[in-house]
Structures are given as structure tokens and as C-alpha cells.
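Project standup — Tuesday

K.O.: blocked on the structure for the chain from last sprint. Re-posting the sequence here as requested.
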Amino acid sequence: MEFSHKWVKQAGCKLFGKDDIDESDIARIKYLAIGESFQNDFFIEMSLEQPPKPFVNTDGGDEWILCLRGGEIAKLAEDYKDKSNAILSMYYLDYEEDDDWQEYCCSTKVRTTWEKFTEGIVMESYYEEHDDEEFDDWYDGVRGSLWRDIVLFTGVEVLRIQGTQIPDLTVLDKFPDLRVLELVETLFVSTDGIENLNKLEQLSCWRD
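H.V.: unblocked you, prediction finished:
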């Protein structure tokens, strides 16, 4: 199986305990978090376990307490339709807060569920040393091409992308089982295919 970045493949091999992986292996991965860590390196997290449903990550801030669902996703999709060079953000939307949802997100049950789920996550980070000018070229190159590897993970149910550049939202066609998406500082050159967001159960998108 061809990957654009060796470190992504190496992480997959570590997850499966194999020297090589193929499409059938990658299709078994249900959770993927990938991108730049904002500390001058890149990371990948993967799990074969089905992510919690509904999905709430208690390691972060309020991104899941305030995540979009149902008609809220449709409103954001309509607002960003036909835009270019767009970083999607949910924080400017005017919608009524759901007290029951917020209470659920802060519950002991959710925290315990997330902690148990993280036990099955394999995480790797990647960094290359370069001279100053070469480093920028390398870093921007990874940010602009990482999507080519992301779309290989066709079985994911929860996809979290951080600090990358993606041509457009038609890439979501690659994930038939996707129900939860998080986008952090992720630039879309075009918002073509943004109607794909309406298929999601949860969407969290924001600027750092």
C-alpha cells in the first residue's frame, strides 16, 4: 500500500504489529487523529476500537461541549458554501445551548468512557531537522500533502484533523462510515463538497 509519508505507514505497522500493511488493515481503523501539533512536529493517533457514541474527548477544552449537531451543521455548511481558502469555525454561529448535552459531556460516565477508549490508541510523532529555509519548505510540504494519506483510512468513524491544507470537502466521500469530524486550523482551498458535512452526527471545527 502506497503512502505519501513513511511515518504514517510506520505508525500503522506499529498498530498492527506487522512489517507491512494493506488496504484491509487500514479499513479496520475506526479512529484517526492526525496533523501538526503546533510544536513544529506532526502526530498520528489510531485505534481499532469503535469510538464512544456520542463522541466526547475529555482531554481537550469545550470543543465537544459546543460541537454542532443536526441543523447546526447544515447552517454552517450553508454559510461556508462557495468559499475559498476557508478555515471552518463553529464559534461564530448563533445557536441555542443544550444544557442536557453540556451536562452529559461533563459527566463522570463520559470521562471514564474516554479514558478506557484511550487505552487502545497508538500514537506516534514525527519531526525532521532542517536548516531554517529548508524547514519551512518541508513543513509546508507535509501540511499540504498529508491529506493524501488521510483519505486512505476509509473505515474511520471519528476523524480529527489538525493544521493541514486540503483541496476541498469532496475528500469526505472517501469515508462512508464517518459520523464525527473535528477540524482544527485546517484550510480548504475550496469548499466544494461541503454538503457532505450534513451526513455527520457531530462536527467540531475551530481556529486555534
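K.O.: great, moving the ticket to review. The two ends are 33 Å apart (CA to CA). The chain has seven helices and nine strands.
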